[in-house]
Amino acid sequence: MKMFMLKSLCLAALLLIAVLTGMQLANNGIQKMKGYEDPNLETAVSFHEKGASFLGNEISSHDIAAKKKKLEEISAFNFFSSMGRKMSDGITGASEKLIHLIDN
């Protein structure tokens, strides 16, 4: 099962890289066909000193840090997550007591 998951993840990563490479090659082909640089045509993926650009959207480390902080705040107040944890703890405790009852 582990090997299947590893192979699946590797295949998915390979396909993602192939799609992004194909998009970049298509963009380069369009620019060559036009014969001039069009500022409206953006590259699929590009890397800069400050960050990266993915399909025209700028991505920086500051954006990632802000999103991480926001996710931490959201997960701190997740009602269903806390209820799930409590239910899991209760079921675990009940099953342990039942096993001890049966064992003795």
How would you summarize this macromolecular structure in one to three sentences?
By secondary structure, the protein is mainly alpha-helical.
Give the tags:
single chain, 104 residues, mainly alpha, 3-stranded antiparallel sheet, 3 helices, 3 strands, elongated
Shape: elongated
Total count of helical runs of at least 4 residues: 3
What are the low-pLDDT stretches, counting only 5+ consecutive residues below 50?
Answer: none
Summing up helix and strand content along with how strands pair, one would put the structural category as mainly alpha
- Rounded to an integer in angstroms, the radius of gyration calculated over CA atoms is 25 Å
> What is the element string, with H for helices and E for strands?
HEEEHH
Average pLDDT:
79
* Secondary structure: helix percent: over 70%
Strand order across the largest sheet: 1-2-3
* Biggest sheet features: 3 strands, antiparallel
Overview of the structural elements:
The protein is mainly α. The protein contains 3 helices and 3 strands. It has helices spanning 2-34, 61-76, 79-103; strands spanning 45-47, 51-54, 57-60. Strands 1-2-3 form a 3-stranded antiparallel beta sheet. The longest helix is centred in the first third of the chain and has 33 residues, at 2-34. The radius of gyration is 25 Å and the shape is elongated. The two termini are 37 Å apart.
